[in-house]
Amino acid sequence: MKNAHPTGEIHAKSGLIGDMPGSRPLTLSFPPFAGMTKNLIFINLGVYTAWLLARFMHPLALIPALLALTPAAVVHRFFLWQPLTFGFVPDMSLLSIIFTMLSLWFMGFYLEDVKGSRWLLETYLISTLTGGILATAFSFTGILGMAPNLTVPGTDVALFGLLTCFAVLFADQQFFMFPLPFGIKAKYLAIIFMLIAVVMLLGGGNPVEYVAYLGGGLGGYLYAKLAPRRGYGYAASEGFYGMRNSYYRWKRARAARKFQVYMGKQGREVHFDKEGRYVDPDDRRRMH
Fold first, then answer.
1. Looking at the predicted structure, is the pLDDT value of residue 178 above 60?
2. Rounded to an integer, what distance in angstroms lies between the CA atom of residue 171 and that of residue 164?
3. Is this structure's pTM higher than 0.85?
4. Distance CA 59, CA 221 (A)
5. C-alpha angle 281/283/284, rounded to 5°?
6. Does the structure show a pLDDT above 70 at 108?
7. 29: pLDDT confidence band, cut at 50, 70 and 90?
8. Torsion-angle region of residue 3: left (phi > 0), alpha (psi -120 to 50) or beta?
9. 36 and 143 share a domain?
10. What is the 3-state secondary structure (H, E, C) of the chain?
């Protein structure tokens, strides 16, 4: 099935109707268009617009060409950014991009509402990168007709990651998909999408693309399972500032020791605590 994107099709039809676990109750109306979700959608639409304008302004065609994933270009031409940037290149058919952007809007908003902008962005990027790396690696094996010269857009890869992440966090949340009269739990919906990708991988289409889908789902699953409560970016910043503060405390204590030695040579006794803070003599006497 050529250019099939199961994630976008099913989400767009669903409308994601149900009680979501965010701070805002879900209604039949569209969720707010704001935050990191809005930024991700605008980037995808910008790439799509560049592709449309390339018919009249040919240099713009380089934008999607350079950002989409072509494993041969990654390995032989060192386009090492592509396993990450292809997550911002949607399928270029109009119907597909409508489905995909609606899916990103609904799914992204509720993840961002519950876990925050940083969490959403990290899930999106890590899912994309996992799918891109696996697709690049497997493309050189030749399995199932894979070839490294096949080009892959990656927004749906990121959506697979968002869905599996959502399924891990809110496994029993139900989705109601038109025209089905019953709800499907998020964990089962994620399994259905992954099975669709496996069937498409075995049955035809671009095999590199469906390996990327499965890799994206794996990335979202691992991120939901292993990421710190506020995301890796926050943990890294906390670690950095913690190391920096430890370094400054060490420098202050070192300077205090030197000053203490100097004052001792001058016949004066001064005291500092272990972090280099000056201890008033009256306070020291009261302590002893």
1. no
2. 9
3. no
4. 38
5. 60
6. yes
7. low
8. left
9. yes
10. CCCCCHHHHHHHHHCCECCCCCCCCCCCCCCCCCHHHHHHHHHHHHHHHHHHHCCCCHHHHHHHHHHCECHHHHHHCCCCCHHHHHHHCCCCCHHHHHHHHHHHHHHHHHHHHHHCHHHHHHHHHHHHHHHHHHHHHHHCCCHHHCCCCCCECCHHHHHHHHHHHHHHHCCCCEEECCCCCCEEEHHHHHHHHHHHHHHHHHHCCCHHHHHHHHHHHHHHHHHHHHCCCCCHHHHHHHHHHHHHHHHHHHHHHHHHHHHHHHHHHCCCCCEECCCCCEECHHHHHHHC
User: CA-to-CA distance for 39 and 45, rounded, in angstroms?
Assistant: 10
What domain range is 274 assigned to? 242-287
The answer on pLDDT for 281 being more than 90 is no
What the block records as the tokens of 203 is 């049955």
Check residues 117 and 58 and name the one with the higher pLDDT. 117
Is 249 part of any domain?
yes
Lowest mean pLDDT among 9-13, 82-86, 193-197, 237-241: 9-13
Q: What per-residue confidence (pLDDT) applies to 181?
A: 66
Q: Contact 102/203 with Cβ under 8 angstroms?
A: no
Q: How many CA atoms lie within 13 A of 64 on its CB side?
A: 23
The answer as to whether 237 is a domain residue is: no
Structural domain total, the chain: 2
Q: Are residues 186 and 79 in the same domain?
A: yes
Considering 71-75, 93-97, 259-263, the range whose residues carry the highest mean pLDDT is 71-75
